[in-house]
Design brief:
The complex is a heterodimer of chains A (274) and B (255).
Chain A lengths: L9 H21 L10 H12 L8 H36 L16 H19 L2 H12 L3 H26 L3 H8 L4 H35 L6 H11 L3 H29 L1
Chain B lengths: L1 H23 L3 H5 L1 H12 L8 H36 L5 H16 L2 H12 L3 H26 L3 H8 L4 H35 L7 H10 L3 H30 L2
Helix pairs in contact in B: 4-5, 4-7, 4-9, 4-11, 5-7, 6-7, 7-9, 8-9, 9-11, 10-11
The chains are: A mainly alpha (274), B mainly alpha (255).
């Protein structure tokens, strides 16, 4: 009598593990994964010297002045970028949303096929705008308009208008359609129907999403600095290249505090207005 | 009173927007001038004829495979490191270990992947190795926290039963705790893998391999045709991963 209970799922598990290993094995050579590279003497000594410089973080007056300017620039890039993104996103969302469709009125909310087909170009544009990562846009704009915050603002405006446009269009469609239908049926214009039928119901959700996106934009504008789009990221990149550990340490700390404050501010705004 | 405060906040927001534009001193006037626009159009025209030569496509295919490998191995390493940190962070080894490991997890998570990649390029040299390590470090912070929460929320009775029946701690963990949390751990890791594929394609901008490094190099050499193909490839990769994960979720998760 066999008294030792055997794991009934052992064979499938073994086979799955072997399959995963067989798929990952070529990946090991492709990704050149080599943990020992971290501990090779030359790398370790460079990195050790760099990390030793982290304490104390740089804090002389001229550096703090620079840090303050860079932080303000990061915040300004995020805010200005979001403002431009809103300007692009609102018309696109109005064009892409089914909420204001006239042909949908007698059909119970389903627009005619040609009306849907006319919406597709705008939807496609929004997909392309948001599917290319913001840092790729930043890199492209840095080559087009030069180093500095302009590239960062344009990159945020483009990527975030794609995201905001899609989400706004969905919010318009998700609110109660009856006020809009009543207004459109009574002969009001589409913009008036939007302003009095959709907006009052959709405003708080739109605001909450916009504020959340602003918080993401602050983080993104730091990251985009690494390709030369201004702000805190560009300063971190410069200090990294000069192996100035103390400066990198205080800038990373500033970044952490900035993200924390943006998070608090966005939570405050969302609680107040929603 | 609340109306007044709300109004003041709104005014402050508007002021902040106006101040941002003034502070940045954006050169939109220059950009919108006839000269600036024609330069932009000239630059954009270079992207309109993507390079589809077989040699370039083969290089892109290799870059895409490298990106996938970076993200897969980075996520696997992150899951291992995250689990190792999640065990103390779920309070199994006392309060000191709990706070220390939570601090490490927060620090790993708070620094973005791209900053880790820049640091890892210094520490381990240029190439996909640095990207894999950067993804592993950031994702370990994210996954570690999620794993710790999953471990805390799982019922402890099965593990207690194994312990009471005379099993060791390892056996209690493997046969009592792990089966309950395993599906969650796998779901979190796959979700982060999806994010990491997207991230791995841009980490190359700081020299950490993959498609991003090819794009950075071809833009630096003003090869707009090659860059256009690379951007198309990135777009396809992102859309493909989105579609695949949406399909997988509908097929296997939302039942």
């Amino acid at each position: 009598m066999n008294t030792v209970p055997r794991d009934p799922a052992a064979l499938p598990r073994l086979l799955l593990t072997l399959l995963a290993l067989a798929l990952l094995w070529p990946g090991l050579s492709l990704s050149e994964l080599d943990l020992t590279a971290l501990f090779r003497p030359d790398n370790a000594s460079v990195m050790g010297g760099f990390l030793a410089g982290f304490w104390p973080p740089a804090h002389d007056a001229s550096f703090l002045q620079l840090l303050w300017q860079a932080t303000l620039e990061t915040l300004a890039i995020a805010t200005a970028g979001m403002c431009l993104a809103l300007l692009i996103a609102m018309p696109c969302a109005l064009l892409a949303s089914r909420a204001l469709s006239l042909s949908a009125l007698p059909r119970g909310g389903r627009p005619a096929w040609w009306a849907q087909a006319l919406r597709w170009p705008v939807r496609g544009l929004l997909i392309v705008l948001r599917s290319v990562p913001e840092i790729v846009w930043a890199l492209l704009f840095v080559r087009a308009v030069g180093l500095g915050p302009t590239a960062g603002v344009l990159a945020i405006a483009i990527t975030y208008s794609g995201m905001l446009g899609k989400v706004y269009a969905e919010i318009f469609e998700s609110v109660d359609p009856r006020p809009t239908r009543a207004l459109l049926g009574a002969g009001s214009g589409r913009l008036a129907a939007f302003a009095y039928g959709v907006l009052p119901n959709a405003a708080s959700e739109m605001l909450s999403y916009t504020v959340y996106r602003w918080e993401c934009a602050v983080r993104a504008s730091v990251v985009m600095g690494f390709v030369g789009a201004g702000g805190l990221g560009q300063q971190i990149d410069l200090s990294l290249r000069m192996f100035a550990g103390g400066e990198v340490a205080s800038m990373l700390l500033t970044f952490l505090v900035l993200v924390l404050l943006a998070d608090r501010l966005s939570r405050l705004l969302r609680e107040r207005y929603t | 009173m609340t109306r007044l405060v709300n109004g003041l906040l709104l005014a402050a927001l508007l002021l902040a927007v106006v101040w941002s534009f003034r502070f940045l001193d954006l050169e939109f006037a220059n950009l919108a001038s006839a000269d600036g626009l024609s330069q932009m159009a000239e630059y954009a025209r270079g992207f309109l004829s993507p390079d589809f030569s077989p040699a370039h496509l083969a290089a892109i295919g290799r870059g895409a495979l490298e990106t996938l490998a970076m993200s897969a191995l980075g996520t696997l390493l992150a899951a291992l490191l995250g689990l190792a940190l999640a065990l103390p962070a779920s309070g199994r080894y006392g309060a000191l270990a709990l706070h220390a490991s939570r601090l490490v997890l927060n620090a790993l998570r708070a620094i973005p992947e791209l900053v880790w990649a820049a640091l890892m390029v210094l520490a381990a040299g240029l190439g996909p190795n640095a990207g894999t390590l950067a993804l592993a470090l950031h994702t370990a912070g994210v996954l570690g926290r999620l794993f710790a929460e999953a471990l805390e929320n799982t019922p402890s009775e099965p593990a207690d039963a194994v312990r009471l029946a005379g099993g060791g701690r390892v056996a209690a963990f493997c046969y009592g705790t792990l089966p309950g949390v395993w599906p969650q751990l796998v779901a979190y890791s796959l979700y982060r893998w999806e994010n990491n594929i997207r991230m791995a394609s841009v980490l190359g901008f700081v020299g950490a391999g993959g498609l991003g490094q090819m794009l950075y190099i071809s833009l630096s050499l003003f090869q707009e045709a090659q860059a256009a193909t690379l951007i198309l490839a990135m777009l396809l990769l992102v859309l493909g991963v989105d579609a695949l994960s949406g399909w997988v979720r509908q097929r296997w998760v939302s039942q």
